[in-house]
Specification:
The chain is an all-alpha fold. The chain is built from 7 helices and no strands. α1 runs antiparallel to α3, α3 crosses α5 and α4 packs antiparallel against α5.
Amino acid sequence: MSLNEELIRTRCQEIEESLGRLEKIRDISKEDFLKNQDTQDIACYRLLVAIEAALGLCYHVAARHLKKVPQEYAECFGILADAGIIATDLSESLKKMARFRNLLVHMYWKVEYGTLYELIQYDLGDLRRFSKSIVALL
């Protein structure tokens, strides 16, 4: 079965929109970020949307292109790395994001906002790299 180009482009757009919002947060100092619950909530939601979109892309490519169905979210990125679709270092970063997504969804009361701030400062580019790698399959 072939890849669904419309689905891929829509998910990539969702990633890009969320990254745009998250990148605005980069300009906020860590101290101000940790004091502002509204900004924390925006960051959590936008990161969740971006990671969910990346996971949707990953599952779509794994199922349609590789004929594999991951058993858990983090595993999906490893499947794409094993197939040479994404780099191993990117896979490892995205696996961490998938685990952070699980924290946001299932144990939201344990979210460490300092960790969230660091992720926004240094790791957002990995979501963009992933998106570009998937678009390259079209």
